[in-house]
C-alpha cells in the first residue's frame, strides 16, 4: 500500500493508506519499528479499558524537551506542553497548548521523593525527572508527574503520550529539506545571526543585557521578514522558539502558535508529492522521526494508529488558542493562569465535546 506519512511531531507518526505501492507493507513495518515505544504515563494512564483500542476518541500528552548537549544535571524542564485530541469521528485532530508558565499545584511524587507545591507547570516534569535512573526512566517519570498535574488541573485522562526531543526534531526537518512558514511581522532571531558574508551562524542571547551575543566581527543581527517563505531547518526551528522582541507581543502565546504552525508545516511537507514519490527519502524521514520521539500508546499496537487515522491530513489539523492567545499573568508574578474560557476548552476535551464547543467559539481557532 502506498504510504502517506503524517507526522504530528511531538505526537504521532502515522502511516496511512492511499493507492498502491509494491513493498508498502515493508515500509509500514519499518515505520513502526523505527518509533521508540515506552510506557510514559505509568499510573497516570487511563487503564486497560478505554486505552486498549483507538476506536473512540484519543487524547495524547505531548512533551517537548530542549535539552542542551552539555546538560547533565536534573534541571530538565518541559519546554513545550501540548494536548492532541482526536474525537471519535476521527475526522479532525486538535492541538491545544498549555503555557509552560501556568501556575499549578503539582502533587507529591513519592517515586522521587518530590514534595508537591504550587509553581509553574514546567517544573512538574523536573520533579519526576530528578533522581537516579537511566535517561529513559527519568523522562518517563517526568511525563508521569506532568500528566498527573495536568489531570489534576483539567480532569483530562490521557490515552497516550509522546516525548519529542528537539535535537531529533531537527533531524526530521533536515530530511524534509526545510518547510514553508508564514511570518506575521518582522522578527529578530536571538540564537542565530549573520557573519560578514551573510552566512547564518549560531549566537546566544544574554538575558541580563537583553542582547544577542556572539555575532562575528562584521556580522549582523538576523531578521525574519513578513510573508510566506521557504525556511531551512535551522531557520524554521529558531522561528518556532522565539518568544521575545518584535516577533511576539504576546510572548509565549505567540511562540505556542508558531510551534503549532511548524507542526502543521511538517505534516504538509511530509505528505507532499515530492516526498511520497521518493521511497528512499520517505524511509529516511521515517527513521528520523523515530529518533525524534518516544511514543506511549498504552498497549495499542502502533499499526492500529496507522490505519485508524488513515484519513487525517494537514488540512484536518486544527490549532486552538489558549487564553485567546494573550498573556494572562497572575498579578505580582511571572506565572500565568488559565482563563475561564480556556478551562472550559479543557473541560470539553475531558467530556469529549470539543468539536461542539469550538463550533460555538470559533474565535478560539487559530487562523
For the structure shown, list the relevant keywords.
23% strand; LytR/CpsA/Psr_CW_biosynth; 33% helix; LytR_CpsA_psr; alpha+beta; Aminopeptidase; disordered N terminus; LCP family protein; seven-stranded mixed beta sheet; 11 helices; 367 residues; three-stranded antiparallel beta sheet
Q: Could you explain the architecture of this structure?
A:
The chain is α+β, with helices and mostly antiparallel strands. The chain has a single domain (4-177, 278-364), classed as Aminopeptidase (3-Layer(aba) Sandwich). The protein has helices at residues 24-34, 122-129, 135-154, 166-176, 233-241, 252-270, 273-276, 279-292, 302-308, 340-350, 354-359, and strands at 4-8, 12-16, 36-37, 58-65, 80-86, 93-97, 103-105, 118-120, 160-165, 179-183, 187-194, 200-202, 204-206, 211-213, 220-224, 227-231, 293-296, 317-320. A hairpin with a 3-residue loop joins strand 1 (4-8) and strand 2 (12-16). Helix 1 runs parallel beside helix 8 (279-292) and helix 5 runs antiparallel to helix 6 (252-270). The radius of gyration is 20 Å and the shape is globular. The two termini are 34 Å apart. 43% of the residues are buried. The model is unreliable at 1-25 (pLDDT under 50). Residues 77-270 form the Cell envelope-related transcriptional attenuator domain. This is LCP family protein. Belongs to the LytR/CpsA/Psr (LCP) family.
Amino acid at each position: 500500500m502506498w504510504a502517506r506519512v503524517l507526522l504530528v511531531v511531538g505526537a504521532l507518526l502515522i502511516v496511512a493508506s492511499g493507492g498502491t505501492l509494491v513493498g508498502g507493507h515493508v515500509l509500514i513495518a519499518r515505520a513502526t519499528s523505527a518509533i521508540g515505544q515506552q510506557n510514559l504515563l505509568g499510573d497516570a494512564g487511563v487503564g486497560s479499558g478505554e486505552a486498549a483500542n483507538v476506536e473512540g476518541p484519543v487524547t495524547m500528552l505531548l512533551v517537548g524537551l530542549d535539552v542542551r548537549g552539555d546538560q547533565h544535571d536534573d534541571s530538565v524542564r518541559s519546554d513545550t506542553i501540548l494536548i492532541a485530541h482526536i474525537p471519535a469521528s476521527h475526522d479532525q485532530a486538535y492541538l491545544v497548548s498549555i503555557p509552560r508558565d501556568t501556575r499549578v499545584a503539582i502533587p507529591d511524587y513519592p517515586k522521587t521523593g518530590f514534595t508537591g507545591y504550587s509553581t509553574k507547570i514546567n517544573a512538574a516534569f523536573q520533579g519526576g525527572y530528578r533522581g537516579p535512573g537511566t535517561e529513559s526512566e527519568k523522562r518517563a517519570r517526568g511525563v508521569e508527574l506532568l500528566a498527573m498535574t495536568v489531570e489534576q488541573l483539567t480532569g483530562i485522562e490521557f490515552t497516550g503520550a509522546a516525548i519529542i526531543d528537539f535535537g531529533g526534531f531537527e533531524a526530521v526537518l533536515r530530511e524534509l529539506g526545510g518547510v514553508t512558514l508564514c511570518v506575521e511581522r518582522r522578527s529578530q532571531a536571538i540564537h542565530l545571526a549573520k557573519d560578514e558574508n551573510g552566512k547564518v551562524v549560531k549566537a546566544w542571547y544574554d538575558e541580563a543585557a537583553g542582547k544577542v551575543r556572539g555575532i562575528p566581527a562584521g556580522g549582523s543581527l538576523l531578521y525574519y521578514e513578513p510573508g510566506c517563505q521557504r525556511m531551512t531547518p535551522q531557520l524554521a526551528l529558531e522561528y518556532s522558539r522565539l518568544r521575545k522582541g518584535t516577533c511576539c507581543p504576546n510572548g509565549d502565546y505567540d511562540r505556542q502558535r508558531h510551534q503549532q504552525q511548524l507542526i502543521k508545516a511538517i505534516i504538509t511537507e511530509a505528505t507532499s508529492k515530492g516526498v511520497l514519490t521518493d521511497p528512499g527519502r520517505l524511509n529516511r524521514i521515517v527513521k528520523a522521526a523515530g529518533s525524534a520521539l518516544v511514543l506511549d500508546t498504552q498497549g495499542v499496537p502502533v499499526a492500529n494508529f496507522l490505519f485508524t487515522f488513515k484519513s487525517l491530513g494537514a488540512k484536518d489539523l486544527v490549532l486552538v488558542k489558549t487564553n485567546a492567545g494573550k498573556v494572562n499573568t497572575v498579578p505580582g508574578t511571572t506565572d500565568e493562569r488559565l482563563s475561564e474560557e480556556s478551562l472550559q476548552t479543557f473541560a470539553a476535551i475531558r467530556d469529549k465535546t470539543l468539536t461542539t464547543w469550538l463550533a460555538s467559539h470559533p474565535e478560539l481557532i487559530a487562523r
